[in-house]
DNA sequence: CAGAGTATTCAAAGTTCTCTGAAACTTACA
DNA sequence: TGTAAGTTTCAGAGAACTTTGAATACTCTG
């Protein structure tokens, strides 16, 4: 199997995993195509051809991905077509967006605790644990992600110096 | 609105959020019922009545939840019915299970990097970043969760002494 | 070991979601 | 401003997933 075939295989495989995790199939395939593509950017037509899906499906996938920051439009002078790419830092951004959910979980738990007459009732015990856990994660995760960003940026610069 | 109604409302609301995030509706509702219930445990019949769903749906939901550690069967002497409860430490366990996914992401990125002729190609750059990010998270998340467990266990013990 | 009370399985029905293909819309250039 | 290239929208077909309800299997208890 050539390296190109291997890349395509890995892309389709990862798309499958993401689809099982709730992402739309076409959306997942567009995302992994961009991620594993040898090209810097891909056009909608490229994606249609590579994935054998309609332009409508590509349009929908692009919309969703752009909203969650997993795809960016690249200005392409001299081309009428939109060019898309998988943005640098997307993974970190994706995980940061999870904070939204953590925050919701934490709030719901607090409200529940208030309605449950404190942490000594069964419901109160469960909700207190839930609230504590999500508050903890909400406190700890953002600095962790920030630390990765710093580390990785430093590493990348070393690579660039070395050329 | 009474506190009981508020609890039920919060439960249904959270179930809706989880369902939007890909969890099956019946499964999410069973989970949040157990989480917000004033009782220590609930039976299948309790769940059927509270949620107005069939026993088949409850059975399916119980199966799924038990597999992911979000529900546990409680031995109930003197009752023929199974009793279910939301287990202590479930949230931490749930997050730990995400490590499986982190691990997969990290591996796929490595394999992709190998097929992409190193980090100086466009695909290589993207996959190197992805691999680095997930390897980092895989290294940092488990100790973080362990730390929460320790902290929370200590806190709970303080509550018990005082209680 | 018989029988009542529960839990689980499974086919069928219902529901929701996704993709396609065509039409409408937008944009860039002559 | 007209035209051609490209993108987005949307209704409808089809696929995939959920739930139900009845039949089956299980498990205590007398």
TrEMBL record, chains A, B:
Transcription among keywords: yes
UniProt-listed Pfam families: MarR_2
Domain of life: Bacteria
HTH marR-type domain residues: 38-81
Record key words, sorted: DNA-binding, Transcription, Transcription regulation
PANTHER family (alphabetical): HTH-TYPE TRANSCRIPTIONAL REGULATOR MJ1563-RELATED (PTHR38465), HTH-TYPE TRANSCRIPTIONAL REGULATOR MMPR5 (PTHR38465:SF2)
This protein's name: MarR family transcriptional regulator
């Amino acid at each position: 199997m050539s390296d190109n075939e291997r890349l395509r295989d890995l892309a389709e495989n990862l798309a499958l995993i993401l689809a099982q995790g709730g992402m739309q199939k076409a959306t997942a395939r567009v995302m992994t195509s961009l991620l594993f593509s040898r090209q810097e950017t891909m056009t909608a037509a490229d994606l249609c051809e590579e994935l054998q899906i309609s332009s409508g499906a590509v349009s929908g996938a692009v919309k969703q991905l752009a909203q969650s920051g997993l795809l960016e439009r690249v200005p392409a002078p001299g081309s009428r077509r939109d060019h898309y790419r998988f943005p640098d830092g997307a993974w970190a951004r994706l995980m940061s967006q999870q904070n939204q959910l953590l925050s919701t979980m934490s709030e719901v738990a607090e409200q529940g605790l208030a309605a449950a007459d404190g942490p000594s009732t069964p419901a109160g015990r469960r909700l207190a644990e839930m609230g504590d856990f999500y508050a903890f994660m909400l406190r700890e995760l953002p600095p962790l992600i920030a630390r990765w960003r710093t580390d990785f940026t430093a590493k990348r610069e070393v690579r660039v110096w070395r050329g």
